Amino acid sequence: MRRSRCRAASLLALAGLVAGPAGAFECARVQPSSSRMPAYRPVPDAARCEGFYERTVSQPFVELVSLTRAPLPPTTTGPLLWQAEATGPALRLTVLPQRSTPFYRADAELPPGRPVAWDPAPMLAATGLRLADLGFLAVPLATSAAGSTSGHADPVFVPLSPAGQAAPPLQAHAVLRVSVDVAAIRWRAAPDSPGAAASAWSELPGSRLFAWQRSTLPLPMPADGGSQRIEVQAVAAADGRALPLLRFVVAGIRHGRP
User: Please, which residues have CB within 8 angstroms of residue 146's CB and are 6 or more apart in sequence?
Assistant: First the structure.
Protein backbone atom coordinates (compact mmCIF):
# COMPACT_ATOMS: atom_id res chain seq x y z
CA MET A 1 0.00 0.00 0.00
CA ARG A 2 1.26 3.46 -0.77
CA ARG A 3 2.34 5.48 2.23
CA SER A 4 -0.10 8.12 3.42
CA ARG A 5 0.43 11.75 2.49
CA CYS A 6 0.31 14.51 5.04
CA ARG A 7 -2.42 17.10 5.24
CA ALA A 8 -1.97 20.34 3.37
CA ALA A 9 -1.61 22.16 6.67
CA SER A 10 1.42 20.07 7.63
CA LEU A 11 3.08 20.77 4.32
CA LEU A 12 2.37 24.49 4.47
CA ALA A 13 3.99 24.68 7.89
CA LEU A 14 7.36 23.51 6.55
CA ALA A 15 9.88 26.31 6.47
CA GLY A 16 11.16 27.79 3.26
CA LEU A 17 8.63 26.30 0.86
CA VAL A 18 7.30 29.55 -0.56
CA ALA A 19 6.49 30.29 -4.18
CA GLY A 20 6.73 33.90 -5.25
CA PRO A 21 3.72 36.21 -5.51
CA ALA A 22 1.78 36.77 -8.73
CA GLY A 23 1.33 40.53 -8.54
CA ALA A 24 -0.74 41.19 -5.44
CA PHE A 25 -1.70 37.51 -5.23
CA GLU A 26 0.55 35.26 -3.17
CA CYS A 27 1.08 31.69 -4.32
CA ALA A 28 0.59 28.81 -1.90
CA ARG A 29 3.57 27.89 0.27
CA VAL A 30 4.47 24.67 -1.50
CA GLN A 31 7.65 23.32 -3.05
CA PRO A 32 7.48 23.50 -6.86
CA SER A 33 8.22 20.17 -8.54
CA SER A 34 11.76 19.62 -9.76
CA SER A 35 10.81 16.66 -11.97
CA ARG A 36 7.43 17.44 -13.57
CA MET A 37 6.47 20.35 -15.75
CA PRO A 38 4.89 22.79 -15.53
CA ALA A 39 6.19 23.33 -12.01
CA TYR A 40 3.97 25.31 -9.64
CA ARG A 41 4.58 29.01 -10.30
CA PRO A 42 2.82 32.34 -10.84
CA VAL A 43 0.90 32.67 -14.09
CA PRO A 44 2.04 35.81 -15.96
CA ASP A 45 -0.41 38.72 -15.96
CA ALA A 46 -2.93 36.90 -13.76
CA ALA A 47 -3.78 36.61 -10.06
CA ARG A 48 -3.19 32.88 -10.32
CA CYS A 49 -0.55 30.21 -9.65
CA GLU A 50 -0.57 26.69 -11.09
CA GLY A 51 1.53 23.58 -11.64
CA PHE A 52 3.06 20.43 -10.15
CA TYR A 53 4.48 20.53 -6.62
CA GLU A 54 6.19 18.23 -4.11
CA ARG A 55 4.39 16.67 -1.17
CA THR A 56 5.66 14.59 1.75
CA VAL A 57 4.10 11.68 3.64
CA SER A 58 2.85 11.36 7.21
CA GLN A 59 0.22 9.75 9.45
CA PRO A 60 -3.18 8.41 8.28
CA PHE A 61 -5.88 11.04 7.91
CA VAL A 62 -9.28 12.02 6.56
CA GLU A 63 -9.36 15.31 4.66
CA LEU A 64 -11.70 17.67 2.84
CA VAL A 65 -10.95 17.86 -0.90
CA SER A 66 -13.97 19.77 -2.26
CA LEU A 67 -16.83 21.92 -0.97
CA THR A 68 -19.44 23.15 -3.45
CA ARG A 69 -23.13 24.04 -3.43
CA ALA A 70 -23.85 22.04 -6.59
CA PRO A 71 -22.23 19.09 -8.39
CA LEU A 72 -19.83 19.83 -11.23
CA PRO A 73 -20.97 19.39 -14.82
CA PRO A 74 -19.50 16.20 -16.34
CA THR A 75 -17.69 18.15 -19.06
CA THR A 76 -17.04 21.73 -20.09
CA THR A 77 -15.93 23.42 -23.30
CA GLY A 78 -14.67 26.59 -21.68
CA PRO A 79 -13.78 28.25 -18.39
CA LEU A 80 -15.74 27.44 -15.24
CA LEU A 81 -17.32 30.41 -13.46
CA TRP A 82 -17.33 30.13 -9.67
CA GLN A 83 -18.80 32.45 -7.08
CA ALA A 84 -19.09 32.44 -3.29
CA GLU A 85 -22.20 33.56 -1.44
CA ALA A 86 -20.49 34.45 1.81
CA THR A 87 -19.80 38.15 2.31
CA GLY A 88 -16.47 39.45 3.53
CA PRO A 89 -12.89 39.60 2.24
CA ALA A 90 -11.50 38.13 -0.96
CA LEU A 91 -11.08 34.38 -1.15
CA ARG A 92 -8.45 31.98 -2.42
CA LEU A 93 -9.84 29.43 -4.88
CA THR A 94 -7.83 26.20 -4.83
CA VAL A 95 -8.25 23.39 -7.34
CA LEU A 96 -6.74 20.00 -6.49
CA PRO A 97 -7.15 16.44 -7.76
CA GLN A 98 -9.60 14.43 -5.69
CA ARG A 99 -7.38 11.42 -6.43
CA SER A 100 -4.20 10.78 -4.45
CA THR A 101 -2.03 11.79 -7.42
CA PRO A 102 -0.74 13.71 -9.27
CA PHE A 103 0.47 16.53 -7.03
CA TYR A 104 -0.87 19.43 -9.07
CA ARG A 105 -2.77 22.48 -7.91
CA ALA A 106 -4.12 25.79 -9.11
CA ASP A 107 -4.73 28.82 -6.90
CA ALA A 108 -6.57 31.99 -7.91
CA GLU A 109 -8.06 35.03 -6.24
CA LEU A 110 -11.86 35.10 -5.91
CA PRO A 111 -12.85 38.77 -5.38
CA PRO A 112 -15.77 39.45 -3.00
CA GLY A 113 -19.12 39.60 -4.74
CA ARG A 114 -17.72 38.71 -8.17
CA PRO A 115 -17.35 35.40 -9.99
CA VAL A 116 -13.97 34.14 -11.14
CA ALA A 117 -13.33 32.28 -14.39
CA TRP A 118 -10.95 29.32 -14.23
CA ASP A 119 -10.05 27.36 -17.34
CA PRO A 120 -9.53 23.67 -16.46
CA ALA A 121 -7.94 22.85 -19.85
CA PRO A 122 -4.26 23.35 -18.80
CA MET A 123 -4.67 21.23 -15.65
CA LEU A 124 -6.58 18.47 -17.45
CA ALA A 125 -4.02 18.38 -20.27
CA ALA A 126 -1.03 18.29 -17.89
CA THR A 127 -2.44 15.62 -15.57
CA GLY A 128 -4.67 13.45 -17.77
CA LEU A 129 -7.49 13.90 -15.25
CA ARG A 130 -11.18 14.41 -15.97
CA LEU A 131 -13.21 17.35 -14.75
CA ALA A 132 -15.00 14.99 -12.35
CA ASP A 133 -11.62 14.18 -10.74
CA LEU A 134 -11.09 17.75 -9.51
CA GLY A 135 -11.92 19.25 -6.12
CA PHE A 136 -12.68 22.91 -5.47
CA LEU A 137 -12.11 24.74 -2.19
CA ALA A 138 -12.32 28.41 -1.20
CA VAL A 139 -10.76 29.95 1.92
CA PRO A 140 -10.35 33.59 3.01
CA LEU A 141 -7.15 35.11 1.65
CA ALA A 142 -6.31 36.04 5.24
CA THR A 143 -5.89 32.34 6.03
CA SER A 144 -2.53 31.67 7.63
CA ALA A 145 -0.02 29.08 6.44
CA ALA A 146 -1.26 26.75 9.16
CA GLY A 147 -4.76 26.84 7.73
CA SER A 148 -6.64 28.89 10.33
CA THR A 149 -8.01 32.39 10.24
CA SER A 150 -8.01 35.15 12.78
CA GLY A 151 -10.53 34.33 15.47
CA HIS A 152 -10.93 30.72 14.36
CA ALA A 153 -8.97 27.73 15.60
CA ASP A 154 -10.30 25.65 12.69
CA PRO A 155 -9.92 26.33 8.96
CA VAL A 156 -12.83 28.19 7.35
CA PHE A 157 -14.14 27.07 3.95
CA VAL A 158 -16.67 28.92 1.81
CA PRO A 159 -18.97 26.75 -0.35
CA LEU A 160 -18.65 27.55 -4.04
CA SER A 161 -21.52 27.82 -6.54
CA PRO A 162 -21.44 27.80 -10.35
CA ALA A 163 -22.08 31.39 -11.46
CA GLY A 164 -25.04 32.17 -13.68
CA GLN A 165 -27.07 29.14 -12.58
CA ALA A 166 -30.26 28.94 -10.58
CA ALA A 167 -29.75 29.18 -6.82
CA PRO A 168 -28.97 25.68 -5.49
CA PRO A 169 -30.82 24.28 -2.47
CA LEU A 170 -29.60 25.08 1.04
CA GLN A 171 -27.05 22.29 1.00
CA ALA A 172 -23.33 21.91 0.46
CA HIS A 173 -21.49 18.90 -0.92
CA ALA A 174 -18.34 18.10 1.10
CA VAL A 175 -16.09 15.51 -0.54
CA LEU A 176 -14.01 13.59 2.01
CA ARG A 177 -10.95 11.47 1.21
CA VAL A 178 -9.17 8.92 3.42
CA SER A 179 -5.52 7.90 3.22
CA VAL A 180 -6.02 4.37 4.62
CA ASP A 181 -8.78 1.76 4.58
CA VAL A 182 -11.54 2.85 6.96
CA ALA A 183 -14.43 0.92 8.50
CA ALA A 184 -16.73 3.93 8.97
CA ILE A 185 -16.92 7.72 8.94
CA ARG A 186 -19.04 9.66 11.45
CA TRP A 187 -19.77 13.37 11.55
CA ARG A 188 -21.57 16.03 13.54
CA ALA A 189 -22.28 19.76 13.23
CA ALA A 190 -22.75 22.74 15.53
CA PRO A 191 -23.55 26.42 14.95
CA ASP A 192 -20.38 28.51 14.78
CA SER A 193 -21.04 30.38 18.00
CA PRO A 194 -19.58 30.09 21.52
CA GLY A 195 -21.17 27.36 23.60
CA ALA A 196 -23.39 26.04 20.81
CA ALA A 197 -24.34 22.39 21.26
CA ALA A 198 -23.30 19.91 18.57
CA SER A 199 -25.68 17.46 16.95
CA ALA A 200 -25.46 13.74 17.69
CA TRP A 201 -22.87 11.77 15.74
CA SER A 202 -24.21 10.36 12.46
CA GLU A 203 -22.58 7.67 10.35
CA LEU A 204 -22.05 8.57 6.72
CA PRO A 205 -23.75 5.89 4.57
CA GLY A 206 -21.38 3.87 2.43
CA SER A 207 -18.33 5.13 4.29
CA ARG A 208 -16.44 1.83 4.43
CA LEU A 209 -13.68 2.90 2.07
CA PHE A 210 -10.36 1.73 0.73
CA ALA A 211 -7.31 4.00 0.87
CA TRP A 212 -7.72 7.18 -1.20
CA GLN A 213 -11.37 6.54 -1.93
CA ARG A 214 -13.80 9.42 -1.52
CA SER A 215 -17.26 9.87 -0.08
CA THR A 216 -19.61 12.85 -0.32
CA LEU A 217 -21.10 14.31 2.85
CA PRO A 218 -24.30 16.33 2.22
CA LEU A 219 -24.32 19.29 4.62
CA PRO A 220 -27.60 21.19 5.16
CA MET A 221 -26.95 24.94 5.21
CA PRO A 222 -28.67 26.99 7.95
CA ALA A 223 -31.61 28.98 6.60
CA ASP A 224 -30.50 32.06 8.59
CA GLY A 225 -27.17 32.22 6.73
CA GLY A 226 -25.12 31.26 9.76
CA SER A 227 -21.90 29.26 9.71
CA GLN A 228 -21.41 25.84 11.24
CA ARG A 229 -18.56 23.84 12.66
CA ILE A 230 -18.12 20.33 11.29
CA GLU A 231 -16.30 17.41 12.93
CA VAL A 232 -15.49 14.23 11.02
CA GLN A 233 -14.20 11.05 12.64
CA ALA A 234 -12.95 8.08 10.60
CA VAL A 235 -12.09 4.67 12.05
CA ALA A 236 -9.24 2.63 10.55
CA ALA A 237 -10.31 -0.77 9.25
CA ALA A 238 -7.02 -2.43 10.18
CA ASP A 239 -7.06 -1.88 13.94
CA GLY A 240 -10.24 0.05 14.80
CA ARG A 241 -8.33 3.13 15.87
CA ALA A 242 -9.73 6.59 15.23
CA LEU A 243 -7.90 8.73 12.70
CA PRO A 244 -7.08 12.32 13.74
CA LEU A 245 -10.29 14.31 14.03
CA LEU A 246 -11.06 16.52 11.03
CA ARG A 247 -12.53 19.89 12.04
CA PHE A 248 -13.52 22.79 9.82
CA VAL A 249 -16.01 25.65 9.55
CA VAL A 250 -18.47 25.95 6.66
CA ALA A 251 -19.08 29.67 6.17
CA GLY A 252 -22.66 30.86 5.66
CA ILE A 253 -23.60 34.11 3.92
CA ARG A 254 -23.53 35.91 7.31
CA HIS A 255 -20.10 34.58 8.24
CA GLY A 256 -18.19 37.04 10.41
CA ARG A 257 -21.27 39.14 11.19
CA PRO A 258 -23.16 39.05 14.53
Answer: 9, 12, 13
Question: CB pairs under 8 A, 24+ apart, for 193-198?
Answer: 193/226, 196/229, 198/229, 198/231
| Under 8 Å between Cβ of 255 and 86 | yes
Q: For residues 169 and 71, give the distance between their C-alpha atoms in angstroms, rounded to a whole number.
A: 12
Q: What confidence tens digit (pLDDT) does each residue in 149-160 have?
A: 445 588 999 999
CA distance to 60, 159, 185, 207, per residue, from 202 (Å): 22, 21, 9, 11
Buried/exposed 198-221: b ≥16 CB within 10 Å, e otherwise? eeeeeebeebebebbeebebebeb
CA-nearest of 47, 41, 177, 192 to 116 is 47
Beta-bridge mates of residue 104? 52
d(CA 134, CA 128) in angstroms, rounded, equals 11
Tell me the average pLDDT across 192-199: 86
State the average pLDDT for the chain: 82
How is 50-105 classified by DSSP, letter by letter? EEEEE--B-S--EEEEEEESSPPPS--SS-EEEEE---SS-EEEEEEESSS---EE
